[in-house]
Amino acid sequence: MIKVLLRRFIRRKSAVIGLALITLILAAGLMAQRLAPHDPYAVNVVAKLKGPSMEYPLGTDQLGRCVFSRLLYGARTCLGTGLLVTLIITLIGVPIGIVAGYAGGAFDNLAMRAVDIATTFPSSMLALALVGIFGPSLHLLILVFIGLWWAPFARLVRSMVIKVKEKEFVLAAESGGSSRLSIIVRHIAPNVLSPVIVYATLRVAAVIAHVAGFSFLGLGSQPPTADWGVMLSDARQFLTSAPMLLIWPGLAIMLSVLSFNMFGEGLSEALTPDPSEMAKVKEDTPLPSRAMASCPEGAKAERPHPEGVGAEAPLAAPPRPPAEPGQPAEAIVSIRGLKVYFKSGRSVVKALDGVNLDVRRGRITAVVGGSGSGKSVLALSMLRLIDPPGWQEAGTVRVAGRDLGSLTEKEMRAFRGRQVAMIFQDPSGSMNPVAKVKKHLFEAARTPYSQRTEALEDFKVALARVGLNDPERVLESYPFELSGGMCQRVMVAMGLAAKADVLIADEPTSNLDLTTQAAILDEFFRLRDSGLTIVLITHDLGVVAQTADDVCVIHEGRTIESGTVERVFLHPAEEFTKTLLASVGASGLAA
After folding, report:
1. Between residues 143 and 306, the one the model is more confident about
2. How far is CA 513 from CA 210, 283, 430, in A?
3. Dihedrals φ, ψ of 86, to 5°?
4. What pTM was computed for the model?
């Protein structure tokens, strides 16, 4: 990411010039003691108002003080104040904004009322009033700026956090059992950092201009302090006889403000993703699956299929092995009478209105239905991730005998990702854009720092198993450098890395070609054979017919029918199921 940002930044000449000027001015202020040829406070009336010379590079002022030396020391006062104030208001405003935006509730209301109060007072007017009461003081100005200017930071960050926390990669982190602090540090803060940095650079320029302005009016730094505003104020009476006394500090203020503005603007452009840099890692050819090993390219494969779903289709999944004989396996997930409602204005939307579902251990259970039927809400309910304006109205969700409604939030974080993991539908939105693929896998697997070297080898194997032939390069890539199909395969690898008892896959192959789809579904078979229970959410009945052991049909938030795939597809009992199967037609398996 750093290399990418540097490339973008270097291409913007104005930003590079701004950074060079900032570096030059900061270096001059830091090395003022060594660079200054004279003491900036030493008075020499004999040498007053002299022009530039070898002894006095920029001449002297009305008291014979070296103008160049005072400019160097003035950089310490003006830039130092600007950086100090910006740092403090950032440290105050950013945490308040993050917590208010992420947590919401009472703290959010309290913080925003404080922001409203702080932004009501014009900083210049308040500073003038306090200076009139307590007298001129740079320290008083600094307190006023800090007391009021943290509020815009907090408001900016809060608005960014509210947008980011709705992203699927935050939901994916919550489903993996990450704590709130971990989500804030690893996912929220990095994604709001860019606008904060840009806003901070512009705020430094504003502080410098305000400090110089108040000092010029005699309300900030006081003579004989080496301050650019004080130098301007002292030089006013010599406007005609020695105009350069005004030009030098004025030029310093202008260059400082301009350089920070140029740098901030260029940084803002550099932090905006360039479409030409997307998908830098080329799409890989997936490794052949066991279903493809004996099929020539472009061939079609015949396999058993339910009548009425389609007689023949291009290869979309490996043939489903027959179910193991014997007694039915126990239900590791049991849902009874689940109702989940959402508030929409003055009305209530019944997303789930009485769903019953049993997911048997060691089997692939498909949940099918039309768009908006409640499939994804059902998946989120299995992890208790329904947030306001949604709520669970009734029903129970039990996983491995534990009622999720009785668990505390801390217990749920330990439960998520360890017992139940989830692959989300949108691959690009489900991955943190500022984190490399390997960091996503580390988090999914909850890998301790001491074991990360060994874990990388396991991750390479997992990426190869889902059809990525250059795992090392993928591990070091960012999501925006991968195509949509590659991001989807990485999401599947994250689900494998979690090593949970139950894996919920929400449309895991929706953005993949049929060859890659076959490889991933083939990997699901291997996982099922090793004991993993899989809940497959899909609208593709062809994939269900060839992949799943059991199926649950839901419509308008209600369970319509459930049972084994053979029973439901060959002998549907409900009219909706018959209509759903009939709608697939002869080309259903190719969908």
Report:
1. 143
2. 59, 11, 20
3. -65, -40
4. 0.61
pLDDT bin (cut points 50, 70, 90) of residue 323 is very low
> Minimal CA–CA distance to 552: which of 540, 536, 563?
563
Measured between its terminal Cα atoms, the distance across the chain in Å is 38
- Under 8 Å between Cβ of 406 and 169: no
Residue 553 pairs with which residues in a beta bridge?
A: 368, 561
Assigned CATH topology for domain 278-419+500-588: Rossmann fold (3.40.50)
Output the six-digit token pair for 300: 């079609």
Classify domain 2-272 by CATH number. Answer: 1.10.3720.10
Does the pLDDT value for residue 83 go beyond 70? yes
pLDDT at 427: 67
What are the tokens at 581? 């199967």
Six-digit token string for 24: 């030059």
Consecutive H or E run containing 169:
helix 168-175
CA 530 to chain centre: 34
Evaluated on CA atoms 160, 163, 166, 169, the torsion sign reads negative
Q: For the chain, what are the domain ranges?
A: 2-272, 278-419+500-588
How does strand 331-344 pair with strand 558-564? unpaired
Measured in degrees and rounded to the nearest 5, phi and psi for residue 373 equal -80, -15
Counting residues of the chain whose pLDDT is more than 70, the rounded percentage is: 86
pLDDT in tens, 243-259: 999 999 999 999 999 99
- Quick check: 348 pLDDT over 80? yes
Contact (CB, 8 A) for 281 and 486: yes
Closest-CA residue to 175 (of 442, 500, 416): 416
